[in-house]
Amino acid sequence: MRKRLSLLGLFSVLFTAFSFGQVESEAILGVWESGSGKARIKIDRAADKFNGRIVWLREPKDEAGNPKLDKNNPDETLRSKPLLGYSMLKDFIYKEEKNWEEGTIYDPESGSTYSCTITLTDENTLDVRGFIGVSLFGRTDVWKRVIIKKK
Amino acid sequence: MIRLQLASLLVVFSTTLFAQESDTTIVEEDFSMYDDAELADGAKRFCTNKVLDQSPNKLISFGYDFQGAHDLSFGAWGSLPASSVRVKSAQGIRINSNFPVISRANVLLNIGVNYWETNYQIESSESHPISSSLQTRGLRTTGVTATLFKPFNEKRFVLIQSVFDLNGDYSLPDFQSLSYTRVSPTFVYGWKKHDRLMFGFGFSRTYRVGEPNVIPVFMYNYTAPSRKWGIESVFPARANFRRTFNTRTLAFFGYELEGQTYRMSSLKGVEGIANPELRRSELRIRMTFERSIKNFVWLSAQAGLRYPWNFNLDDGNIFRGFGDTPYTLENNLQNAFYFNLSVNLVSP
User: Fold this and answer.
1) For residue range A110-144, what is the model confidence (pLDDT) as tens digits?
2) DSSP letter string over B138-167?
3) What is the dihedral of CA A135, A136, A138, A142, to 10 degrees?
């Protein structure tokens, strides 16, 4: 009987720890606005990785009135792809202490992809640091959580 | 009973995992649902420090600057008669850096360290103390630049820059006293009208004309709706017309007014001068071509005319303002062709 109780206790502790880890890692989920205010990005989870897609653009149309395409992409085959829905954050893994690492960020304005880490500084603020090789050679953009108004 | 509890716990655990997977199912989205939204906690939006397609910030730059042959004429100075020498070339390395150390939505602070040198090759340099000094010691600038961009909201901002330069005929083993550091602060109050236009007015205490001066400045950065051209300027220090071929290939046509005051320790005591300072200022009218050669490594090639504005000698750090205080020694440089090549690591 005591052995069974110990097993149950251990299982409860593990379950609580697992759930807490899940909650903390998922604090990044939601819709965020970039520092420039030009785009909103929705971050989702796929298995153990976190990705972000562009879901809103302040200027969604080009000069001709057509939806903006990823025309700066170095890969020519991707230049006809619409920016809306484009996956600009890829393959982030939750590490610890509100940090998501080992991912990449794509800048549609330059067509460049950078190494990237994301830090949740408070529940509504992300520090998104794109860098080249080492974190020193980089720049941090501050993203704010967006609340979608119900229609 | 215990078995039942254990089974219930397993069910809850499995349900949690299942719910997790179903949350990540990708479905077609109606993007219009993201149109009507507000920032959480009523957070403010702030303007950024660049316009669309503006040339990238260079984190590190390794460059080489070369000026072609030209004459250098000296006025009469005490017992020294007027004379002239032929400068075969003036060349040297230019290393610049500019790192964002604070990068928040409501404040950006960049700090950079710079090192420039100009080495002179002069025929019969020993004929005059100045040409002799330039030939044997050259001119050097070691500096730190701090740039603060403070946006107040989506439209208004302040830009404050301070440059701390140590200029002179020193060498690294025989370094110059920091008391000769020259500080050039600039203040601009500006507006960002939209993603393609920002401008501002302010003032600067600058050494760009070779000696201390306080001048008004006008900042104007613009990109045309076609995004094929733009203007990048902080008038009167520099102005460039930009042609954007694509995001990785840019060309510029414009000018920069470049200058400093150099402490010439090797001339101290010559003709009784106590604090010799060389006023160097030149207008560089040029074409620049910049291209990404591999990912974040950019090549910059620049060529043009170096038009001399000032190359006189003063005794001390004199502020002339609108006065007509004479120089200790008035010199003249000829125009010269110049080019500058640099390899740059650009910022995200």
Assistant:
1) 888 999 999 999 999 999 999 998 888 888 999 99
2) -EEEEEEEEEEEEESSSSEEEEEEEEEEEE
3) 80
State the pLDDT at residue B17.
40
| Surface of A (32-91) touching B: CB under 8 A | 33, 35-38, 40, 42, 44-47, 55-56, 59, 63, 72, 84-85
What does the pLDDT look like over B232-274, one tens digit per residue?
Answer: 999 999 999 999 998 889 999 999 999 999 999 999 999 999 9
Per-residue pLDDT of B137-169, as tens digits, reads 999 999 999 999 999 999 999 999 999 999 999
**If contacts are CB pairs under 8 Å, which of residues 268-327 in chain B contact chain A?**
295-296
Cross-strand partners of B188: B159, B202
From the number of C-beta atoms within 10 Å of its C-beta (0-12, 13-18, 19+), residue B9 rates as: middle
| Cα–Cα distance, B135 to B334 (Å, whole number) | 17
State whether A109 and B345 contact (CB < 8 Å): no
Alpha helices by DSSP H, listed for chain B, are: 2-23, 129-137
Kindly indicate the confidence band of residue A13, based on its pLDDT and cuts at 50, 70 and 90: low
- The one-letter amino acid code at A67 reads P
CA distance B108 to A38: 18
In this complex, is the C-beta atom of B38 within 8 Å of any C-beta atom belonging to chain A?
yes
CA-based nearest residue in chain A for residue B4: A8
